[in-house]
Design goal:
The structure is a single chain. This protein is mostly helical. It has one domain. 81% of the residues lie in helices and 0% in strands. Helix 2 crosses helix 3 and helix 3 crosses helix 4. The longest helix has 27 residues.
Length: 151
């Protein structure tokens, strides 16, 4: 389920919305702006909102399945990460109504995803979920970096 959610939020939904807005609705916006708009909304906004809620209410999943940390000591830290993810996700979602939010959220998320992806890459004995997190984090950081570079 984790893999399906990540693929939908970080690839399928953004690409679909870019395609619909560009080809079907004939938006005058350049493709790079649509890329930023929809990857920030889906890949940052919705993904981090959902991750934040899960980290707040089910911190053990992130601690054990994504970070590979066993024991109750990490749960408070994961919940604090969840609060930050929830806040970032809310602003990412709001960016659809407030286009001025797109670039700042993209910068924040590019740094966050880049560092998280590198940290996952450096972990020994990664699990399947850790590999999904690593690839998706690095992919999103790259997409957002391209958007940032062009705007």
């Amino acid at each position: 389920m984790y893999l399906v959610t990540i693929v939908l939020l970080m690839l399928v939904f953004p690409a679909t919305f870019i395609g619909v807005e560009h080809f079907y609705l004939h938006s005058a916006a350049p493709l790079i702006l649509l890329l930023g708009k929809w990857f920030v909304f889906w890949g940052v906004g919705v993904r981090l909102l959902l991750a934040g809620l899960r980290q707040l209410f089910q911190p053990r999943f992130t601690a054990e399945e994504v970070l590979g940390i066993r024991g109750a000591e990490a749960l408070l830290l994961v919940q604090e990460l969840g609060a930050a993810n929830l806040a970032t996700g809310l602003v990412g979602i709001a960016s659809v109504a407030r286009p001025g939010f797109v670039l700042p959220v993209a910068i924040i998320a590019a740094v966050f995803y880049g560092i998280a992806g590198i940290r996952h890459a450096m972990a020994d004995g990664r699990t399947g979920n850790q590999n999904v997190a690593m690839v998706s984090d690095l992919f999103m950081s790259l997409i957002l970096a391209v958007y940032i570079a062009f705007v």
